[in-house]
Design a protein that fits this description.
Layout lengths: L4 E7 L5 H11 L4 E7 L1 H10 L4 H5 L4 E3 L17 E7 L1 H8 L6 H11 L3 E6 L6 H13 L2 E2 L13 H16 L11 H17 L1
Parallel strand pairs: 1-2, 1-4, 2-3, 4-5, 5-6
Helix pairs in contact: 1-7, 4-5, 4-6
Length: 205
């Protein structure tokens, strides 16, 4: 498949690196060329939380960058992309983005995404949240970021962890304008019909 569009993916050191891995897997089936930045803590969490190595995950992307290389392509607005997803996003990374403190390529790429008015998704993975966290989210949102915590829905009746993960990936794809069939969408009419059929079956039984 010819890759006609670029998207930057950042994996920071929060728990939930499986979300970033699954995003890369799903993007491989699209016409997006993936440009990956994994923080050092992100690499560590991949080894801790999954059966993958950081090298395995790097091979899922089309291009991979050293997070210390702030001269890499995504550090410049002239490097054209459709946007960026930081998944998962630590509070430290959120703070760097909200305060334009571009100490590494991951935060610099996000800052460039904002200044160029491109789509930036922050999959912030922290709970509970104190006022400082919430203030940072508000500040990032005011700057143009799309705050998308990995909060699962259950109306589509997930049966596996991947079902739960895919619902968040689907929400990201929706925002980025990428067609998908990663989860069953809410359809009130069909839900009511399912309830009606269940009620009739219980009567017959």
């Amino acid at each position: 498949m010819s890759k006609t569009k670029r998207i930057v993916v950042g994996i920071a050191g929060a728990s939930g690196v499986i979300y970033g891995i699954r995003l890369l897997e799903c993007l491989k089936k699209t016409d997006y060329e993936t440009h990956l930045i994994i923080s050092e803590a992100g690499k560590l969490n991949i080894e801790i939380e999954t059966a993958y190595t950081a090298e395995d995950v790097a091979r899922m992307a089309d291009v991979v960058y050293d997070p210390k290389n702030i001269a890499a392509g995504p550090s410049s607005g002239s490097f054209l992309t459709e946007g960026m997803v930081v998944i998962p996003c630590t509070v430290k990374t959120l703070s760097g983005i909200a305060n334009s403190y571009t100490e590494n390529l991951l935060v610099r790429a996000a800052d460039v995404t904002l200044k160029e008015k491109r789509k930036l998704v922050l999959v912030i993975r922290e709970t509970p949240l104190h006022k400082g966290h919430l203030s940072l989210m508000l500040r990032a949102a005011d700057m143009g970021a799309h705050i998308l915590p990995p909060v699962p829905s259950f109306y589509h009746k997930p049966k596996t962890i991947q079902d739960i993960v895919d619902q968040t990936i689907g929400k990201i794809f929706d925002f980025m304008g990428i067609p998908h069939h990663l989860f069953r969408r809410w359809d009130n009419d069909s839900t009511l019909e399912e309830q009606r059929i269940k009620a009739l079956n219980s009567v017959v039984a």
